[in-house]
Amino acid sequence: xxxxxxxxxxxxxxxxxxxxxxxxxxxxxxxxxxxxxxxxxxxxxxxxxxxxxxxxxxxxxxxxxxxxxxxxxxxxxxxxxxxxxxxxxxxxxxxxxxxxxxxxxxxxxxxxxxxxxxxxxxxxxxxxxxxxxxxxxxxxxxxxxxxxxxxx
Length: 152
Known about the structure:
Blueprint: H1 11-19, E1 25-29, H2 35-38, E2 42-45, H3 50-57, E3 71-74, H4 78-81, H5 84-104, E4 112-114, H6 116-124, E5 128-132, E6 141-144
C-alpha cells in the first residue's frame, strides 16, 4: 500500500496512468461495455463504480486543458432516450460525474456527450479501457490526460 494513493487504484491501473502521455485517453467502461472487443489494453476493476474510481484517480491525473472537452460520456441511443426512466437515470449518472470532476477540476468544461458507436470507435483508439462493475446503463466515461507541470 502506498501512502496517499487510494486502494481502489490497482498496481496495473497506477502504472497505466503513469505511462499515459498528454492527449492519451482512458475509458472507464460500465459492466455492460464491450471492452474486450474494443481495445487490447484492458484493466479489470470489477466491483467498483466508475465515479468512485474516477474520484480516486483525479488527484493523480491531470485533465487536458488543450482540448475542448477532456471528459466524454456515451449518450443513450434514440430509442433509449424515449424512456423517461432510463433518461432520468442517465442524468443522475451525468450529475454524479459532473460533481466528481468539478470537485477536483472546477474549471472543467461540461461533459461532452457522444453517440454510442462513435464512443466505441474512440474506445478502440484509447490508451486503455478499465472495465468496472458499474451496472448503471450508459455510465461509460472517457478522460483525456493533460500535462503535469512541476508546480502541480
